[in-house]
Amino acid sequence: MKKMKLKNVLKGSFVMVMAALIFGFVTSCSNDDDDDNVPGTNKTHKVVFKAEASAGSNIEIAVYGIDGNPTTATSLSGTTWSSPEITTETGAMSANVAINAIGASTSSTLKVQIWVDGELKKEGTSSGQYLSASASHTF
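The structure corresponding to this sequence follows.
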């Protein structure tokens, strides 16, 4: 008799523990807002692409864009360049930039940057006489 009662108590305890685990799992997932954590959803961003080359270098071409929609800026000159501010569409996934320049010497450098909502997000560098630097950022 004592053995049967212990067996029933253990079964009841097991059922209660399983019910509590299932209830906890279901309630923890019911309010998940995973869509807020998916890159590129429900937000727009202000993006600026920048480049800076060492003294005496010459930035010649820039290709930049959001989500595979490139813009090409040619016939550039000087050691600095900045794109106009771009407001992304809701759901944009990535920003990309590639810059080519001619350095003054083999020790010349080129730095490209992606600024999102006023914050530096990515940076790429290149060094040498013929400079090509790129950067990519996923929102």
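Helices lie at 2-30.
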